[in-house]
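Structure ticket #2291
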Amino acid sequence: MKKLALLIGVSEYKPGLAQLPAALADIAALERVLKDPEMGGFDEVRPLPNPDVQKMRLEIGRLFSRAGKDDSLVMLFFSGHGIKCDAGTLYFAAADTERAEFRFTALESGFVHNVMNNCRCKRQVIILDCCFSGAFDPSLQAKDDGSVDLRTQLGAQGRVVLTSSSSTEYSFEQPGANGQPGASLSIYTRYLVEGIETGANGGNENGYVSIHELHEYARKKVMATAPKMTPKIITLKDEGFDIYLTKVPVGDPVSKYWEIASKYIINGVVSPVGRVILDQWIQRLGLTPQQASEIEAKARRPFELRLENLQKYRQILIEQIKFRYPFNQEDRKNFNDVQRSFGLTDEDIRPIHQEEEDRARKAQEAAPSARKDDASAAAKAEAERREEEERARKARIESAAKQAPPLIQITIDRGAIVRVGNQWQTKTESITRAGHRQELTKEIAITMLHIPAGEFQMGSSDKEVDRSTSEAPQHRVQLQSFFLGQTPVTQAQWKLVAGWPKLAVDLNPQPSNFKGANRPVEQVSWEEAMEFCRRLSQRTELSYTLPSEAQWEYACRAGTTTPFAFGDTLTPDLANYDGNYTYGSGPKGTYREKTTDVGSFLANAWGLQDMHGNVWEWCLDHWHENYQGAPSDGTPWVNGGDEALRLLRGGSWIRLPGLCRSAYRSRGHRDIRFNSVGFRLCGFPPGLLS
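Resolution: structure written out below.
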């Protein structure tokens, strides 16, 4: 597969047509950037300076006849005089063209149409920097099978024509340093070259500049410099296809990844498609996962700071309402000052004011004679409410204990990985763990394993490869026993529970991208996972929820202190992740590019499966930047953090092995739905089945 280009520049003309010295500079500049492997990467770039009409016809015919169906791209560039006849037909002037007899001594555009139509190459680009270039037939047709291949680095199949002017305009040269025409490039070509050299302000997500992006960059620059010029783009059809022409120059890898990450981190999160794109850039720029993670964290910071300021503003509003409401003019002025200091817009604070002030008005209407400073009465009411909640909680525990299913013994194969010489080998042994099985139908059941009480060192040491600062400081956590799902929740389990009566949130019975009854359910938000737990708890009269972050890591490690429950590294034989990448000295392997059935891989020492990879798993905790002030008893950390962001653990099918470590922490907005995010059930209060 080759990329071919023919660059024609005509600067020397017979009397009657002005000389165009810039035309030769045009083809020289384009030859330079198209041949550059870091920009154009063309296999063959043929300059054709000052040809006669016969030579021009011959070389254009050769270009399009040589380009085969397996060649990736063919490009024709012409810089010179364009002449339009009274009928509107465009002619390309050659070095021997006579102005008075141009119909017979210049090349008619119809010839180019014909050779393009007979060309077998599916991607064709024509760039015309000449007067009246917009007269190149906009009804251009091509042999096309209707296919669009947007996944390749070359973009879609089709034909694109760029013109420096409309069908009625002259094309202008850019004055040189001495103020005289011809001392530098033609203005349109100048900005095309500049766009290639700079990446046209970023290029697309795959690191390539498309022909549309390049033209748009040049068009804006031209019209700012020469408003009378109107560069045009002519495409085969209107479906929005595009052809990738050149690469984006990388420059400094850290700065470049910051730029790309800022583009694809939207509202603080990365979509599944964005994740794929960012991972491609990580590989291309040669960054380590830790470097990429730190850059992404910095790119998220402006969004996180905005959320923090919104929360601070809400708290200030609540305190002011307690002090005085309704507000007076001075209060409103002070709120404006706070708003400006936090960098918030009117749109940011309007819903906060509406919500909190509506609550304040309703409270006043319900108790018009109540004193606002009666703190003792409010404290008494709050204490009574908490006592009632505690009585109800104990009653639920007692009720669940009476109906708790008996423990059973579950036998399963456990895996571990050891180094033997230069090879990593997987060891397998059969283990038996205590648990219970909740029958939902004859075909569908949920298996929960008993996780023993104990303590562990949560987080990672500064010596662990790919360690993130959010995993520090390491700290001791002591937990009581609990139960955890042997695997993530499956699509069959989800579909059944989604059909039960709604409690708070509607559930889509089939949300997953990768279909399969025994595959993990994905594309479910944190709110929807909690609704699943509530419905299951109500139907079974047992207590189901999501694990705390500490419970999840404790169960994942299963008594180990290595990066993975299986040992010092991970292999695609033990988990579902991107096997194109390795951890430490571990081996490469299969990248499955989708989820796999739950329970397809060996278990950890406590019988749990798929704790590494397959799908991210929601936890109860709010997001905190690190473990400073974290609970030491294994309870969910739901104070002082970002309530809108919830913890995700375990990595997924699309992630690198270093992000599947036992200690790795990620987060997502509680409303997001990704095809790499699912969840696992945590059941029963500690000691319920003692």
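Closing remark: The radius of gyration is 33 Å.
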